[in-house]
Write the structure tokens for this entry.
Amino acid sequence: MRGNAGPACPVCATPMRGPAGGFRYDCPACGHASATLPVAIVQGACALREDDREAALEPLRRRNFETVLDRLARLQPPGTLLEVGCAHGWFLDAASRRGYRVHGLEPDAPIAAQALRRGHEVTTGFFPAALPVDARYDAIVFNDVLEHLPDPAGALREVRNRLARGGLAAFNLPSSRGALYRIACALRALGWRAPHDRLWQVGFPSPHLSYFRPEGLARMAQAAGLREVDRVALPSFAREGLWQRLRYDARAGLLARSLSWLALTLALPLLRALPSDIVLAIFRRDDAPDQRRADTAGSRSAAGATTATR
């Protein structure tokens, strides 16, 4: 894709090209995509039907959440768990049933109140500023959150700092290698930008600011001190709840929603055979850098002691 030199890629530091569609920048080296879209997490900031949104997302997300917990269980027993962007508290429900001691963090106060009413410990605010400075967790989970953050590399460094030794971090997020994302980008290049803008959540209070390739996420996480230990594709949508998912953005007309529902319903068997638009990647806190620093400090102390006795 041709375009002006944009910001440095957060994965490989190559100048990005764009803006495509007025907001999207793509890295020619590693394929990472970033957006310059406004963020306004304020109740009523855009025309979303929250009841439809909840009905649309709950069936698929609850199934995916069980997969997240299954994969975590293969790697370590339950302990303390922080979910960043806990929304209505569905993942906290599932994790609690698995034996985790859960804590949620959610910036949207009315949505956080719903998780609180479910009986969970929830803090309203942003990661990591809203957390106690000494808080550490055995597991930290981002379900459809990392792609919304303006500084994902900085967030990954903070995740590493907030994990207990050997702790796990799970990221469930969209993949730019997915079939729907690639189709939407091709359609935008042909002049139909609605599917592309919908995937980026243009006009939503918290739009997507990044689309990761799984290997790019692993590279960024490794630089932050996180070592990838598991990766698996997750389904990105299902027939159940699809109409509500298309309906909760009130700006889309009935005809456009109906055509989208029909197209996705017919394409569902094919899409299941194509690269998924959602990936789950799990990382373990890499304590080797800490050990190397400790070993280096110990060597220096020993050398100093030897010198002092001469």
Remarks:
- The chain is about 40% helix and 20% strand.
- Residues 43-48, 299-310 have pLDDT under 50 and may be disordered.
- The chain has one domain: 4-294.
- The first helix runs from residue 50 to 73.
